[in-house]
């Protein structure tokens, strides 16, 4: 344990304001005493799934993230992981742990409106984020626990909510200020718990690369520094895992990439839509109050050439984004370097944002992200062609020997070639 701590502490803590002490962080952990590993699962392997928010598909090579690149050499990877549409944080993190497209698991955007219930989901609203009624599907931690296997989460979308009647056995309420070194340290400590209560599926989340990509752009020195800082944490995790001598699969992935943004499209120049009916971004949604309003707005907005306008049921099938009432009645889709707003003024809104995401990931390569995996039965130095992120869920279920108990959109066949025969 002392050797592990010395490895972790060799990395300086990235500057955070009002950083909590480690004991304060640990006191926030929520722990269920009722879930234990069944005897049949004790010899099963372990999977750690790490998400580096906003880590574009080419960042590792572009910025020489040596620890992440070492995973590719020692295991398997893809040239580009294709996020689900829209390529936003909350929809894609929940897709990664359910194997479902956003239209099927229900988290259709970072914030959205449910016309059936009259309620709104917003990522800044703790009550909504922690309400399991919003989340469909069976997240990986619940799939494991249903089958007698403990789970843990050091942050992940959905991990704070009571979904299917449970949480991960160990989890934390999200706190962006928690130092990354502490998160890595806790993952290693969880893997040293007694076998009966040791988690077999663990999730870990880092947001810094996304934050810097938004603020300074994907090609900035600040984004490079963020990539290399998080890469150090991956290195610390890998070194710590070597000392534990456990059969561990390490998965490093992300929710989406990042593109430069430099132009605003203000729909207020074309139509009058109350802000409470509008959600903006590279993909914008308008919630109308009547069919007549839908038709009227569509007739005007569809004449514009710098974005595409669809009625919900007409969003192209390849995007898998037309089969949920939480999706706006109108969906507006643009391409980089544009983003869509609804404002009386657009003079200052780009001053604090140089990068963004959300665009069609099939049309915009920069939305692509990463998938790296190493572990006992993974082929070395093997690369997959681009594939969709819904296919990670069945791969992890296979590695843990879990049975998928409800229909999903992902397929194990897509990634099965990385497994040693």
From TrEMBL:
SUPFAM superfamilies from the xrefs?
A: Alkaline phosphatase-like
Specify the domain of life of the species encoding this protein.
Answer: Bacteria
Listed InterPro entries: Alkaline_phosphatase_core_sf, Phosphodiest/P_Trfase
Pfam families under this entry?
A: Phosphodiest
The protein depicted here goes by the name Alkaline phosphatase family protein
Look up and give the organism this protein is from: Gaetbulibacter aestuarii
């Amino acid at each position: 344990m002392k050797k592990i701590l010395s490895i972790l502490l060799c990395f300086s803590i990235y500057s955070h304001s009002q950083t909590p002490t480690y004991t304060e962080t640990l006191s926030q952990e929520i722990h269920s005493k009722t879930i234990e590993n069944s005897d049949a699962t004790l010899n099963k392997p372990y999977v750690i799934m790490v998400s580096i928010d906003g880590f574009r598909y080419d960042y590792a090579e572009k910025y020489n993230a040596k620890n992440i690149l070492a995973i590719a050499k020692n295991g398997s990877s893809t040239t580009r992981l294709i996020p689900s549409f829209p390529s936003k944080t909350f929809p894609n993190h929940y897709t990664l742990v359910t194997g479902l497209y956003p239209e099927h698991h229900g988290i259709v955007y970072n914030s959205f409106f449910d016309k059936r219930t009259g309620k709104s989901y917003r990522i800044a609203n703790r009550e909504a984020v922690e309400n399991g009624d919003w989340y469909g599907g069976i997240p990986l931690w619940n799939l494991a626990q249903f089958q007698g296997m403990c789970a843990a989460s050091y942050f992940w979308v959905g991990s704070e909510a009571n979904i299917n009647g449970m949480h991960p056995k160990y989890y934390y309420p999200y706190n962006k200020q928690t130092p990354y070194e502490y998160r890595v340290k806790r993952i290693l400590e969880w893997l040293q718990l007694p076998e009966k209560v040791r988690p077999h599926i663990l999730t870990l989340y880092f947001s810094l690369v996304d934050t810097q990509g938004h603020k300074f752009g994907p090609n900035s020195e600040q984004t490079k520094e963020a990539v290399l800082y998080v890469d150090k944490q991956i290195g610390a995790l890998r070194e710590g895992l070597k000392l534990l001598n456990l059969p561990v699969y390490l998965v490093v992935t992300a929710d989406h990439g990042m593109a430069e943004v430099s132009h605003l499209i203000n729909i207020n120049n074309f139509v009058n839509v109350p802000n409470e009916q509008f959600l903006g971004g590279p993909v914008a949604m308008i919630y109308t109050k009547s069919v007549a309003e839908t038709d009227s707005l569509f007739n005007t907005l569809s004449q514009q050439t710098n974005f595409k306008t669809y009625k919900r049921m007409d969003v192209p099938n390849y995007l898998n984004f037309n089969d949920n009432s939480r999706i706006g009645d109108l969906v507006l889709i643009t391409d980089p370097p544009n983003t869509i707003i609804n404002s009386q003024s657009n003079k200052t809104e780009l001053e604090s944002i140089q990068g963004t995401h959300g665009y069609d990931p099939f049309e915009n390569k920069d939305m692509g992200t990463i998938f790296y995996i190493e572990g006992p039965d993974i082929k070395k130095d093997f690369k997959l062609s681009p594939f969709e992120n819904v296919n990670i869920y069945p791969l992890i279920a296979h590695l843990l020997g879990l049975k998928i108990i409800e229909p999903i959109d992902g397929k194990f066949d897509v990634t099965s070639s990385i497994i040693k025969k």
